[in-house]
Every structure is written in C-alpha cells, then in structure tokens.
Design brief:
Layout lengths: L19 H7 L10 H16 L6 H12 L7 H14 L10 H9 L6 H18 L9 H8 L4 H14 L4 H4 L3 H13 L11 H4 L2 H15 L4 H11 L7 H17 L4 H11 L5 H12 L6 H14 L5 H15 L3 H4 L3 H5 L7 H14 L5 H11 L5 H17 L4 H12 L5 H17 L4 H12 L5 H14 L7 H13 L2 H14 L11 H13 L6 H15 L3 H9 L2 E3 L1 H13 L16 E3 H13 L27 H16 L13 E2 L3 E2 L7 E9 L3 E10 L4 E12 L2 H6 E7 L1 E4 L4 E10 L7 E13 L12 E12 L5 E3 L5 H11 L1 E10 L5 H12 L2 E2 L11 E10 L4 E11 L3 E10 L4 H7 L3
Antiparallel strand pairs: 1-2, 3-5, 4-5, 5-6, 6-10, 7-9, 7-11, 8-10, 11-12, 13-16, 14-18, 15-16, 16-17, 17-18
Length: 932
Amino acid sequence: MSYAKKKDEDAEPAIFKVDRTSVFQEARVFNTSPISPRKCRILLTKIVYLRHTGESFPKAEATELFFGITKLFQHRDASLRQMVYLAIKELAGTAEDVIMVTSSVMKDVQGAGGRGSGEQDIYRANAIRALCRIIDGTTVQAIERLLKTAIVDKTPSVSSAALVSSYHLLPIARDVVRRWANETNEAVLAGSKSGGFSLGFGSSPSVSQGSGMTQYHAIGLLYQMRAHDRMALVKMVQQFSTGQVKNPAAVVMLVRLAAKIAEDDPGLRKAMWGLLDGWLRHKAEMVNFEAAKAICEMKDVTDAEVAPAIHVLQLFLTSPRPVAKFTAIRILHKFASIRPSAVNVCNMDIETLISNSNRSIATFAITTLLKTGNEASVDRLMKQISGFMADITDEFKITIVEAIRTLCIKFPSKQAGMLTFLSGVLRDEGGYEFKKTVVESMFDLIKFVPESREEALAHLCEFIEDCEFTKLAVRVLHLLGTEGPKTAQPTKYIRYIYNRVVLENAIVRAAAVTALAKFGVSAKDGAKVDPEVKRSVVVLLTRCLDDPDDEVRDRAALNLRLIKNEEQEVAEKFIKNESLYSLPIFEHQLIMYVTGEQSTFSKPFDLASVPIVSREQAYAEERNQKLSADMPTLKAPSTGPSRPAAGASAAPNAGASSVFANTQKYAEQLALVPELSAYGALLKSSLEAELTESETEYVVSVVKHIFKDNLVLQFHVKNTLSDTLLEDISMITTATDEEEESQLVEDFIIPIPKLAHDEVGTIWVSFKTSSEGYATGNFTNVLKFTSKEIDPTSGEPEESGYEDEYQVEDLELVAADYLVPAFAGSWDDVWEQVGAAGEEATESYALGKELKSIQEAVELLCKQLYMQPLAGSDVAMNNTTHQLKLFGKTVGGGRVVARIQMAYSAKDGVALKAVVRAEEEGIAAMVVGGIA
C-alpha cells in the first residue's frame, strides 16, 4: 500500500505564499481564550517570514500586531515564548510605543516568573535580544545593570546574547557600552577556563554554543569599543594571543585584527608577523589557514616572511581531508598570481592534485601550475590538461582556458603547443561561454604573438564552418577582416568569408560583407592592395547587392562605392579604420552628456573631444589588463615608497588608454585657464604626486603637464591650520643645476589669492622649454605666502600679516614623464627598425642589495621607465639572469626600445646593462640616464 498521495487533512497549508492582509486578519487568534500555542506559533512564523521576504506592515497594522502579540506573555509555553520574541524584534522598528512592553521583557531577562531555571534559559537569550531592540539611546542606562550581569552570566547562550545585543547598542549609546569593557574582558577569560568549542551537530545548546561563542562575541565587542585606539587594540591582541582564547573562531578574529594592525602601522608589522607565524602552528586548521592567508596578503611581504605560510599550506596539500586540500590550494592559487616564484616549491605536491576526484581541487591545481610553471614545463602541463578536460564541466573548463590565455601572453615562444590545445578543445562539445573563452584566447594569441597568426586564423576559419553561435561567428569574421589581409595569402580566407554570405543568417551575412570589404583596401605591411584581390572582392560584393536582407545590401553598396573611389585614403579611413576611440574617455563623455547639468540635448555630442588611440596603444592597454586580471584584490609587493614619489609618473600597467584618460581629465581643467590657451594641445599629464606628508600644516601635491614647447606645474595646496588665513600664495620652483635651468625658462606664476582653513587652491607655474630636447632634472620648491592669524572671538583675520615660506620636497622631471607605453607585435622587428632609423645609448648599473630578486628589478624598471614589456619579458623565469625588453613612444610620437640584461647574486645584488634605441635625438641617452 502506498501513502505517497495521502493528504493530511489536519496539516497546515504551506506558508510560502503568505498574504499580508490575511495574516493581519488572522491576528484575532491572539485574543482568543484559551490561547492555542500551536496556532499562535504558526501565525508568528508567518509574520517573521513576511518580514524576511521584504514585506513591511503599515505603522498602524504593525502597532496593532505588536500589542496583540504582547498578550501572549500570559502563556507559559516555552516554544511560543521564543516565537513571541522573534516577532517582537521584527516589528519593533515599525510599530509605535513599543517601549511600553519593556517591563514585561525585563522580567524574563531577570529570570522572574516562577519558572524553572532550565525553562528560563531557553528564552532569556531571546528576551535580551528583544529588549535591546525596543529601547532607545535615552533608556539604555536603565538596563545597564541587567546587561552587565548577563554578559558574565554562567549560561553561555545568555552571555552571547548580551554581547551581541551590545553590538546593536553601540551606535546609539557608545559611551554607556564602553563602560562594560571589564565585564566583556571577564567573559573572554571565563571562556578560557570552561573549555573549547564544538561545531558538531546534535550537541546540546550549552555545549555547541558554549564558551567558544562567548569568547568570539566578546572579542568582537572589545574590538568595536577600541577600534579608534590602536595601542589598546595591540595590547588586546597580544594579551589574548598567549593561549587564553580556546575557541578557533575567536582566534581567527585575533588573526584578522593582527593583520589589520600590521597593514595600518608599519612599525608594528614585525611584532604582528611574529603572532601570525605562531598561529600557523595552532591546533585548529581554520586558524592555520587564516594565518597563512593573512601573511600571503601582507603588503610588501618578503620571501622570508611568506616561507612559513607556504610551508604550512604545502603540508595541507597532502591532507586526507578534501576541504583542507581545497582551502590550501585556493590560497596558493591567489598568491601565485603575484608571486609565482614563492609558490614554485609546492609544484610537486600540486601536480599530484591534478588527478584528484574533486574537480574543484583539480581545477585549482591546474591553474596554479599554469601560473607558477616555467617555460620548460609548459608542454608537459598541456599534455596533462588535455586528458583532464573531457571529464569536467564548462565552468571548470573556462577557468582553465583563462589561465592558459594568460600563459600564452607570458610565454610567446610556446604558442604552438597552446594553440594546438585551444584548437582541440574548440572542437569539443560546450556552451556559448566556454566557446567564447576559447575564441577570445585565440584572438589574444593573434594580437600579442604575431607568429601564431596564420595557424590561429586557419583554426578559426574551420570553427565558423560549423558554428552554432551567431555572436561568435560575427566576432571571428571581424577578426578575419582585420588580420586576414596582413597574411601572405589573403585569398584563402576570402573563400571562408564568402561561404558565410551564402550559408548563414542575415546578421552573419552582414558581418561577412564588411570583412570582405577590408580585403579590398588592406594589404600586408601597408603595401598596395593586389589588383587581383581587389577585383575578386568587387565581384563578390556585387553579388551581395541581390541579398534579400536590407542591411546586407546596404553594406555591400557602401563598401563597393568606397573601394571604387579613386581616393584610397577615404576607403582606408572608413573601411580599414586602424585607429580607435579611447573607450574609457568615450564612456565618461557620454555619461556627462546624458546626465550632466546641461543635458537638454540642444547641442550634439562633440565626438572631437574623445581622443583617438592607435591599435598599438589599445593592444598595450588590453595586454596589461589581461595579465593583471587575476590580482585585483591582492596587495602586490612594491619596490618604491608607500606614496608616489614627486617625480613618479603613472604606473606602467595603467596602460596607454589610462594615460589618455588622465590627460583628458586635466585638459578640461587647463582649458579654463586663459593664460594657457596659446600652448596648444596637452600631450601628457602625470599622476598627482605628494610633496608633503598629509599630517603637515600645509599639504602640497603636484601634477606635471607636458606641452609641445611648455611645461606646466599644477600645485594643489591645502591649509590645515584653523587659526590662520593665507594670502598671495605662490610656489618658487628652481632648477638645482645651471644646465637644467637653461632648458626651462619661467613664463608666469598664477598664485592663489586667499586660502582659509581646509580649503584647497591651485597654483599654476609655467615654463618655456628649449627646442634642444626634453628637459629633465631636480627642482626645489618653496611655498611663499602671507600669513594672517584669525581672531578667535570675531573670527576675522588680522589686518596685517607677515610673509613666510615653507620648503616642500624636490620635484623630479624624469624620462618617464615624456614616454607612453606602446605595444609591438614583433620585438625583433621593432628593435631593428628603430636601430636603423635612430640612435643608441648604452650604460651599466649596479642596483645593489636593496632588491632581493630579478623580478623586483623588472618591476622597478618598468615603473621607472614607464614602457611596455614585450615578448613576455616582464616575468623573470631565471633567478640569476634575465633580459627585459621594453617598448614605448615619446609624447612627440617617436619610438623608443630598450633591452636590459640583468644578473643577480646574493653577494652583489642586481647588476644590469641597458641598451636603448630611439628615433628622436637625445632620447636614448635620457632614457638610459633615467635608470636609478
């Protein structure tokens, strides 16, 4: 006999479709006599359910419900009483006069009412939580004694409820809650005497929520009390790190506090690292993992500091528990994004996880190996991954393909094996997102590794022959139109493109027509188009004029007209279109046009205000973004000071588009200064660099603006003195060398007329540059002003003041201020081309022992020279020798290429030899001289 369909006629209906009006009408059950605990509990559950699903009761209904619920205090049913307090908490924020039930709730908090102690403990904790929701800041003192007693109560659930409720009281009565510090501290110490903490299911409340949770909540409350007192926090962390805290969750909180203190105060970093290192050997796994994660995420962490954490994580890789393996490999995976060399020691253990039955662990293992592996291990990894791909879902496949995409950019010489792997998985079954990721990876190979172009295009042509996704077919056709004409035999791609015109839908046919047209105006290396190719394209486009779709016919007609136009430049401008708009600036300008104060659309959008970047610059930006995509949340090690140096430019990974975005932002400000209108177009603006500390009485920063024949310094000055008014504020900038002074002749200074407390003003200092080249060097800066004290009674400044001056840090004008990173497809080609057309400079340097590895030297040089690393040379795969290849352009458009050979030894540090070639005269020597 089956009972599967038997309906329980007495069962209550499901509450997942609850109506607020019907619930309010059912509230009359609270007034019945005798009270039915079961019906009341069901109705209270519906009220709580509605509140948690976002439903809100009107104030009048909430008030009536609230006071109807308070009538249930007369019943002794413990389960009903628990639901009463849950409902009171939910309605307390909406109902009126809720404070009237304070006395009833306080009786339960005190344990009065004649019930047994076990029964009281069940709902005393709920009563405390409800009490803290129905009172306001003015009545907290009335319950202070109750809460202080509850904090040190021997019943853990009551103590935890009082501590958690104190969190909610802090915003409305901080001074009162801070007086409970002794009781909170006592709760921590009491927990250390009564044992640890169990997360096991089936335990009784007094065990599963024992002293552990009390310690966790107490430490959290102490932190909230002392959040603005760093030394008190340090003392607390050090006090509780001696073994008094038994609960692992509470120790995890101490780990996070120690990591935060180390980040906020570099002076305490060593002491906090010592505590974190000790927690690596804690008996609880969760503490080990949290400490290891905190050390890996420390700013500027050295190899020596991170080594113990890596060792602990390596031990967990061989744990029999899958969750331990997963946590360890995930932390290593994140850290490998910024410090692959430090994770290399774990590679042998990580390789054993590739065949793990848990696919999440295996996927993390593979992607970690792809980040930490060297060029020699790439082929072996590709073979291991190939057999793994068939057994995993699309989500895991996407993760692996994205890691391989990054590897393709890092190791261009291994493109053949990676391309074979990508073409193989492209033929496998998979959804749109997976196929899109593989296609995008092949696109990147074509862009950044020109040697792979023809083979990759052949695989993509084969893919679109049987492509079920229209969007991907359109994207591949666009790429074929852009890259196909640059190959040695462009005609073989025309056949694949025209097949789409014959066999596909209208959207794909329209994309194919546009791709065909590019073969009629483009050729390899800027040469003239082969007449035969052009004639074939015209014939094929003419056939498209009979297409049944309007857009296909219109595109064919337009492109035919442009191709047949005698002026080749017109056709190249509209069809070839090698320049792109700077998309970040384009987006910003459109947003301002639509949402700005004058968004009446009376004037058309000015497209001329959007700068145009070349494909080389766009590729440089895209490459940097892809390489840094895995590390947005990590603190990468830096080789420079914590704040930008006065001479520093934007970070090299900012990319060319970011340079243009920064320049465009300041160009709008410079346009408002009439004195600068005759200077012409702004070529480049640096990042804002601080010349003083933020705590000084006058805070000064500077931005350098480069024009064709002028240098403009934009000084931002802030007056932090509340009793002083500054007037006639100017900046005297002087070159420290006579030769440098002759290159820059002061044109004018625009001072700040007046600067009150907390106001920020701008000083403009303009120089005329010599025509002999780009000026570099150090410049002293002296802030001159008239200081007037403010009368504290009237608030008015004195009539007479006194002249004063304030020395700020020197300003450095360096080669990086005139350079923009750019991308080149072939390093060897651009090296030879620039060498044949320009000049060369060579210099050797010893960087000393300050740099601990070649990778640090690579990062430092990329920042100092502000050029684009090519051919994967931004990753040092050898610990003793490396060659860094850099490429960029000056603000005048001349190409600059640098080859830097480095060697490292523990005794002497990093030594290097730099060879720089440049098309413009004097640039090579300037760039070589910019290496510190």
